[in-house]
Structures are given as structure tokens and as C-alpha cells.
Amino acid sequence: MNRLAKYSDHAYSLLRIMAGLMFSFHGAQKIFGILTDFQPPIGSQLWFGGLIELVCGLLVMVGLLTRWAAFLASGEMAVAYFQFHWKFQLGTQFFPIINKGELAILYCFVFLLIACRGGVKWCVDKKQ
Predict the structure, then answer these.
(1) What distance in Å separates the CA atoms of residue 79 and residue 43, rounded to the nearest whole number?
(2) pLDDT in tens, the chain (128 residues)
(3) Would you tell me the crossing angle of helices 102-117 and 8-32 to the nearest 10 degrees?
(4) Where are the domains of the chain?
């Protein structure tokens, strides 16, 4: 396993790039109505969420203002889980497998990690 350790920054950077890319797809879907029949009204909470997903996803992907973009994206996903998935219901609705919130929680913690580490490799940010 020590052989893989030297590639940890590369693997992390690939995680950052792919998480940002996938996140931006969710935003593009909400903002531009790509591959969906539903497009939230301009100025609605879902529309602003899509804007955050699109912009922050692209910033994280290219590694520009990485920490700030990832922190904002992490917070958005925390709100998404609590407000739209869990809805503060007691019982089995708390569990992500039941309330369909797995992706929101996963994005929340992946972006929290990215906010803590920054761009690392293959990024526009010059500072670590």
C-alpha cells in the first residue's frame, strides 16, 4: 500500500475535479433545463441552489477559489439534506437510504474535505 501513498495528491485532485464536474452538471440541469422536464422559476430557492451548484462546481473543478467554493457547496448540500430530504421528521425518515439524501450528504462531506485541503494539484489557485 505504500506504493499508492505517493499518488494520494493525484487521487485527491481527481476526486476534486470529478466532484466539481458532477456537481456542476446538477446546476446546469436546474439553470438551463438540460436533460429534464423540470426547470425551477428564476429567483426561486431551487434556482439559486442550481446557480451555486453550477458556479461552485466549475470553480472546484478548475481549482479557482477552491476552498471558498467548496465551503459554499458543502453548506448548500447540508441545507439540501435537512430541508429537502430529512425535513426534520422522526423515525425512519432520518436515514438517507429512506429519504433519498445519500448524494446530498456525500457531496456535503466531500466538499468539506476539499474546503479543508484546497486545490493541491492541477489547480488554478497558486496558494495551497
Answers:
(1) 17
(2) 689 999 999 999 999 999 999 999 999 999 999 999 889 999 999 999 999 999 999 999 999 999 999 999 999 999 999 999 999 888 889 899 999 999 999 999 999 999 999 999 999 987 54
(3) 130
(4) 7-117
